[in-house]
Amino acid sequence: MKNLLKIISIIAVLFAIASCSEDNITGNEDSHSLKCTVTDECTSETAWADGNRYVNKGNWATYTQKPGSFPTCVDLLAGQDMLAGQVCFLDIPGDPDHLKIKIFLNKCWSYQDVNEPIKIQGYNGNVPSGNPAPGKFTTYKGKGEQGTSTLYVIVPVFDFYGIHLDVQNCCLEE
């Protein structure tokens, strides 16, 4: 088990090194100009697409309303206030029943090595009250490829989306 943890740490550090050296990242250019130093310890965080909170007290989980026009992007916030990337909503020409969600991770951020680090729940009508349970989200559950910073997911059109990610940061900002 200790060897497996060491291997996972090494892979995470190698990914962080690659992320810090990428030259052709697209997205929020201000967030990609950060200089970072790779560390051998990664910090695990919960991230949500920015939006309205499900509840006012307690859990900081957020949901995002379907945009009125495309493309529309919102921040991907980790640990409530760290900019981990962006979530963009894109239309699919000729398909009014689906939309494409682009999840983009900033430098130094990667998906945690868990079974389903990306969870999306769509809602029509009213957003449910109470804390959401991302493990029970059903619209999409899956993985992004380690070593990639961008993932596209096609989902049915809903009024609202809860977008939750298990991410990690393996760099220190300079």
Question: How do the helices and strands line up, and which of them pair or pack?
Answer:
Elements: H1 2-21, H2 29-32, E1 36-49, E2 52-53, E3 62-65, E4 72-78, E5 82-91, E6 98-105, E7 109-111, E8 118-123, E9 140-142, E10 150-156, E11 160-173
Antiparallel strand pairs: 1-4, 1-11, 2-3, 3-11, 4-5, 5-6, 6-10, 7-11, 8-9, 8-11
Describe this structure in words.
By secondary structure, the protein is mainly β. The protein has one domain. 14% of the residues lie in helices and 45% in strands. It is built from two helices and eleven strands; from the N terminus they run ααβββββββββββ. The protein has helices at 2-21, 29-32, and strands spanning 36-49, 52-53, 62-65, 72-78, 82-91, 98-105, 109-111, 118-123, 140-142, 150-156, 160-173. Strands 1, 2, 3, 4, 5, 6, 7, 8, 9, 10 and 11 form an eleven-stranded antiparallel beta sheet that branches. β5 (82-91) and β6 form a beta hairpin. The protein is globular, with a radius of gyration of 16 Å. The termini are far apart.
Decide which structural class fits the backbone: mainly beta
Strand content: 35-45%
Mean pLDDT over all positions: 80
**Residue windows where pLDDT falls under 50 for at least 5 positions:** 1-33
Shape label:
globular
Order of helices and strands: HHEEEEEEEEEEE
Helix % is 10-25%
Distance between the termini: 33 Å
Largest sheet: 11 strands, antiparallel
Number of domains: 1
Count of runs of 4 or more consecutive helical residues:
2
Radius of gyration: 16 Å
The overall strand count is: 11
